[in-house]
Amino acid sequence: MADLYIYYQVREADTAALQGAVTAMQAGLAQRHGVAAQLKRRPQAKDGLQTWMEVYPAVPASFPAALEGAVEQAGLSAWIAGARHTEVFTDVISCV
To answer: Could you tell me if residue 79 is inside a domain?
Structure first.
């Protein structure tokens, strides 16, 4: 299992449309894959752009492909300025 952190920028004028699309996409992913998705953004904008982040904790190895398909189907690229950047983190397990 891994945690996915996906960040990207959105023009302030497009935030309402993007929020609706991402929220609907995440609801579908939660229903189909049982993920507990989160949507966050930085509190400040810079040069008319906000930075947003989708968080998907504890997802199986097969989830990134499902997410990619959902992003394409939701048409998120219409509102995103630039690329989506994905970071993957795993738990650190201590051997005590």
So the answer is: yes
Q: What is the pLDDT of residues 44-85, one digit of tens each?
A: 999 999 999 999 999 999 999 999 999 999 999 999 999 999
Residue 20 lies in a domain: yes
Q: Which of 73, 2, 8, 60 lies closest to 39 in space, CA to CA?
A: 8
Whether 26 is covered by a domain: the verdict is: yes
Total domains in the fold of the chain? 1
pTM of the model: 0.91
Strand order in the sheet with 80-89: 38-41, 49-59, 2-11, 80-89
pLDDT digits (tens, 9 = 90+) for 12-24: 999 999 999 999 9
Integer Cα distance of 70 and 72 in angstroms:
5
The pair of structure tokens assigned to 60 is 């199986």
Q: Would residue 96 count as lying in a domain?
A: no
